[in-house]
Write a structure and sequence with these properties.
Layout: H1 2-10, E1 15-20, E2 25-29, E3 32-38, H2 44-50, E4 67-71, H3 80-97, E5 100-103, H4 106-135, H5 142-172, E6 177-183, E7 192-194, E8 198-200, E9 207-209, H6 212-222, H7 228-238, H8 243-254, H9 265-285, H10 288-296
Antiparallel strand pairs: 1-2, 2-3, 3-4, 5-6, 6-9, 7-8
Helix pairs in contact: 3-7, 4-5, 5-8, 5-9, 6-8, 7-10
């Protein structure tokens, strides 16, 4: 708190109230509310400004300060469906304004291919071992029974990923360029604020990579609540994905999570049910008819 007070004095701010949240401190001052956050990614904002993308809270602190200080921006109440539409519009704008192409050699795509194939092999062995143990029991626990009932969906998803990653790699292994953008890299509704203009906050994990990874993070964070096919259609209306980019996104989306039996039966049933729901949604999203629909939009 003493360091925060030192920063406040530099900018003639007199505190009256502190609210400590997970990664930030919100301070009520004589000049309004401000957010204090320790810096972790100093260069991203300069780059975003250079690309004429300034949809983040204005930074009032100096670049060499220990903390980043921004005005506190209240979010307007709005339906979550509208909020995710507005957010995906802003993300597509971010990607559009920061698009560039990088010369690559075959090793870059090969590394992606090997990472995914190794993960597929690991998950198949992992779930096969779990099922061997479950099937050897006289009485299954509720989560074990739930997984046994749905294990075919896990294997079906892994089989899809195995086939598609081979097809994807055949298409990209000889490519010499990769399309890159600035990724927010931690997209979730909590990191979007609509006020006078839309804002993305929490840029700590921002990096340069393929545009699909922002979509993948959003899917993993918010999939249970939204029809992601509609989100993807809206994104592609503004910023179309290449066919191989979309294929890789669908592979990542379809990969099952690793479920560890390390919680209560009740919580394990919730985790397994959520995983099965996600796999069903992924199957719908990656179906041939839906794939064509997203391409048309």
């Amino acid at each position: 708190m003493l360091r925060v007070n030192d920063e406040l004095r530099k900018y003639d701010l007199s505190p009256s109230k502190y609210t400590n949240l997970k990664n930030v401190t919100i301070v009520d001052t004589n000049k309004g509310k401000f957010v204090f956050k320790r810096k972790t990614n100093n260069n991203i904002y300069d780059y975003l400004n250079s690309r004429n993308f300034n949809y983040y809270p204005k930074i009032i602190s100096d670049s060499n300060d220990e903390f980043m200080i921004t005005p506190y921006i209240p979010s307007i109440d709005m339906p979550e469906e509208q909020k995710i539409d507005d957010m995906i519009d802003l993300v597509s704008l971010l990607h559009s304004k920061t698009t560039h192409f990088k010369e690559v050699d075959s090793d870059e795509y090969k590394e992606i291919y090997e990472d995914i194939t190794n993960n597929i092999d690991y998950l198949y062995s992992y779930y096969s071992d779990i099922m061997t143990i479950i099937e050897s029991k006289v009485f299954m626990s509720p989560p074990e029974y739930l997984l046994a009932l749905n294990i075919s969906k896990v294997y079906e998803s892994l089989s899809y990923c195995h086939i598609k990653i081979e097809d994807w790699y055949k298409k990209v292994k000889d490519k010499k360029k990769k399309r890159l953008v600035v990724l927010h890299n931690n997209l979730k509704l909590d990191h979007f604020i609509r006020y006078d203009i839309p804002y993305l906050i929490s840029w700590d994990k921002a990096k340069i990579d393929m545009p699909i990874f922002d979509l993948y993070k959003l899917y993993k964070n918010e999939n249970i609540e939204f029809d992601f096919s509609e989100v993807l259609k809206r994104y592609e209306h503004n910023y179309p994905l290449d066919e191989d980019e979309k294929e890789l996104l669908f592979i990542l989306i379809t990969l099952p999570d690793k479920i560890s039996f390390d919680d209560t039966n009740y919580n394990m049933c919730i985790k397994i049910s959520d995983m099965i729901d996600i796999l069903n949604r992924a199957k719908y999203l990656t179906s041939p008819n839906n794939f064509k629909n997203t391409e048309k939009n």
